[in-house]
Write a structure and sequence with these properties.
two-stranded parallel ribbon, 95 residues, mainly alpha
Length: 95
């Protein structure tokens, strides 16, 4: 799906980390609740449907640079995207 929030590609890594302290890009409590909702739906034979009670995680993206942008811009966007996914990756690494 489309992002619910778009971060400008000019944001610094430090600024993004500060923003994520206030507005996280991943909620582990929500993920645990969703896992339980999905587990129950599978047990109930509701595979393939989005079960009642499932709530989507925030979807935050980084704005697209112009096609002729310097390669360093694309590297910066890649790093920002990695930062946005850190909490989710950490969660799944230990669960």
């Amino acid at each position: 799906g489309s992002p619910t929030a778009v971060i400008p590609d000019t944001v610094t890594e430090d600024q993004l980390r500060q923003l994520l302290q206030v507005c996280p890009s991943f909620d582990p409590d929500l993920e645990r609740a969703n896992e339980e909702v999905i587990r129950q739906a599978v047990e109930d034979g509701l595979g393939g449907l989005v079960p009642a009670g499932y709530r989507a995680q925030p979807l935050i993206g980084v704005s697209d640079p112009p096609d002729d942008a310097d390669p360093s811009v694309f590297e910066h966007i890649w790093k920002l995207t990695e930062i946005l996914r850190e909490a989710e990756m950490d969660y799944h690494a230990v669960s």
